[in-house]
Design a protein that fits this description.
about 425 residues; ten-stranded mixed sheet; two-stranded antiparallel sheet; 19 helices; about 15% strand
Amino acid sequence: MKRFLCITLALLMVLSLAACGGDGNGETATPGAPDTEQDSPKTVTMFTKKREWNWEEIEKKFEDANPGYDLIVETCDADNYDNILKSYAATQDFPDVIQTTSGSSLDLWKEHLVDVGDLACLEKMQKDIVNEFYLDGVCYGVPLFAEYHGVIYNMTYLKAAGIEEPPETLSEFIAMNQALQAAGQPTGIAPWKGAAVIPAHMAAPVFAAQEDALAYYQQIEDGQADLTQDEMFNALLDYLDAVREYGNEDALNTDNTTERNAMYAGDYAWYAHDGSWVTPALRSTNPDMEQNLRLGVYPFSDDAALNKVGVSVQSLSIMNTENIEAAKVFVEWLLGTDEGCDILAKDNNVVMQRTDYVMAAEDIGELAAQGVELTNAGKGASNFRWISGAVMVSAADTFQKYIAGVYDRETALNEIASIIQANKA
C-alpha cells in the first residue's frame, strides 16, 4: 500500500524519490496507457486532503485497469493542505495531480498547472460547472465531486420535541431550541475552534444574495461596501448569536473531530456546521445513525428565500511535471469511466459531476442526496471561492473574538472589511 500521510515536507521528498521506479507488463485498458514491452512504467503521484477516501482501492483498480502505471496517493488533513503545497512550490518538487477549487485557489496555482481542456470526460459534465475552472480562457481543473454543507439535525430529538422538519428561518431555529429545552432534549454543538469554516463555507449564502458576488467582494476590497449595513453579514452574526445562546458553552474549544464524534454517537439535536463529507466515517462508525440525520439550510435570516445549504465543488488539476500525459490518463480513468466513478460514488459517497452517471442515495449517502434535493429546489449556494487563505485565517480569528464577546458586531464587521482590504490581490 503506497498511501501515506503527509507529515513533513522532508518525509514527502524522501518518499517521492523512493517512488519513482518499478516494472509492469500487460495491455492497456485506458487510451494513452503505455506499451509496457517498450516503455518504462509510469508513476503518477496525487496529493489530496480527502484522507477518508478508500485510496487503497482506487490505487489497485487504476493499476489493474492500466498495466504499466503506478499510482501513489499522498494525503494530509485539510488544515495543512495549502501550506504543504506552498512547500512543494519552494522546492519545485510537485506532485502530478492535486485537489483544487475554483476561484482564488486555482488562480494561486495556475502558473504551475497545465491546460486540461482536451480531456474527454469534460464533455460529460455540466458546462456551467466546468466553466468555473477556466481562467483567462484556459481550463485548469476537472470537476471531481460536489459536497453539501449546512446544519445537520438529529431528527430523533426534534420529533421528541414535536418538530417534524428542520427549521428554515432564524426564528424557527430559535423556536426549535426553545422546544427542545422545554421537552428536556439536548440542543446543539458548534466546532468554532476551527472557525475558518465560517468564511470558507458559511459565507456561501452571504455572497449568493448578491447579484454579482465577485463584484461585491471587489467593492469590499476597495472600501466601497459597509459590512455593518450588509443584510446577510448581519444575518450570519444573528445565527452565530443563536448558536452561542443555545449551543455548547465550549464551542471555541470544540474542533470538527469532537463535533463529528458527537454526531456519530447521537449526542446532540443539531450540529452548527458540517456536511455530506461525514458519510464514510458515519457509515463505518454508526451506520444506523444515518437515517436519523437531516441536512438543513443555514437559517441566517427570517427570509427563507435567503437561507441556503452550501455547495462545494472540488476539482483535480494537473501540474506541469514530466508526467503530464500519465496524469491525464489517471484523471480520465477516475472521472471519465464508470469504474472510476463507481469507486468515488459507491465507496466514498460523493456526488459525481457527470451528467450521464446515475447515483442512488444508498451510494452517495442520505446527506448528499438531501443536498442535491435542496439544491434542485433552489436552496443551494456555491461556496464563494475568491476569499484567500490569508483572509480566511484572519477572519476566523475575528469571528472567534465576536463569538467570545471580545468584539461587538460593528467592530467585528469593520475588522473583516479591513482584513479583506489589506489582502487585496
